Amino acid sequence: MSIQVCRDPSDAVALYLPQRLYLKSFAKLNISVQLPTHKVHGKSISNWDLMEKLRKMIQPDSFSVLKVTKHSSEVIRFEAELENREKLDRVSSRLEDRIVQLNDYPDPLKVKVTEAKSDFPSRHVWDSFFRDATDMDEMKPGERPDTVHIANLPIRWFVHERDLNEDSPPSENLFKKVFEKFGAIRQVDVPAADPFRMQMKSSMRGITVPPQDSQVYFEGYIQFSEYVSFVRCMDALRGRKLLRKRDDIAEWCNIHVDFDKSKHMTDAAVKRRSIVRERLVARQNAKEEEERKEKERISKREAKERQKYERTELEKLEKMREREERRKKKQLAKLMERDNVDLNSRVAEERRKLLKEQKKLQAIRLLEELFKRIELRPDLRPNGQKPERYYAAGERSARARIVDRLKQQQEDVLDAQRNYLKSALDGRIVIRSALETKKPKRNSSLSSDSSMEEARHKRIKSERLTTPERDMHYKGETLNIYIKMFFAEWVLCYVTLYIFTWWPKYEKRT
């Protein structure tokens, strides 16, 4: 029943060339070895030794199959096969009435050879079967000799190359094309190609292949339109094996051929299988639809649970963030209370220092301008001459350097004071932002992430950076300081002008 390697495919007849399928004849022999009537104590006959002796007797020919079919006290029977039927007579003559002498067995053994009787049905067998059957109507398809049942067909030999894999079922279309050579085919049935066949009743399946062989072999039913085609197919398959040629090797296997006796291909049986298949398909579709809906329900439930979990996690994170902000606010409050930090007073102090430094710088610039104007006034030049004490080049340059250095120092001090004021204002903004954070309104729905993002961005209160000019506009105290500063500068300018105007006259008079 297994697939074997054929060493001599020379007499193979083409069956279907696209799949490289052929039919090849073979010969089967029954070889009997007669045992002596009296028993030899302590001695036994080895079947393996007998088989080796038989193989040597037919050389240079060889058996393709040689196996023991019966071992009794009177006879040992072997079944042998030859790859070529033309070798049958030659091998039979070499074995007939030969004497086999075994080394460990004293008595000689005689060999008898006969051709094995084929179990292939003849025309007389199927004619008598349908003639004598009372439940058969030869006028109906499937109840007359028109259907061939072939078993033990290799699945991989009836699968297209493009569809070949481990789980590919045999192709029903390819199976039909292979046997169209013998005539018009009415219909075929391959149970292995029907995925719902095993769900039907055993009487409807039409399966005779053992379950352990169903992964390698299959069976099929071929119903011909004419009786002549049926006879032609049966005659072509009689005494043949199915062979398939490959690029470097030829394989063949024994197939079991018989005519259908179970009315498997009648119209009623085919229709009944079709109805059952439709019901099974509908049931399968309903089951798949139910599974799909169940998967959708599960996915929706999981999505809801996931969203609920995400909302819970977001709420936890929001609460943690609020607790962290409250903790930071408390820490800042404790820090301010512990260190006695009064930011407002510090800002006011820094602003006053800044105004003072600005006032000094403006006074220096004013003095510089006054010195320049005094040098250019003609009334300070008596008799058109420049006093050497006041108008020497060295003194003028030295005085200019002193003024520039003093002005630069005052500008540096002013810039530093501005930085101090800015840092104080920034510190106040940060602390105000931490201490004056408003608690966001809790959205009960929590439906969208965008609203949560907006609430998250709106939680921190922003404060604009104030400047001294802006504070002067709103604070009367700062405005009064500026008025006083302007008045003091005006007085200082007047006094300085008076000194530089009258001082030379006073010095000349003295």
Automatic annotation (TrEMBL):
It comes from the Eukaryota. The chain crosses the membrane at residues 481-503. Keywords: Membrane, Transmembrane, Transmembrane helix. Residues 286-305, 440-467 are annotated as: Disordered. Signal peptide: none annotated. This is A-kinase anchor protein 17A. It comes from Diatraea saccharalis.
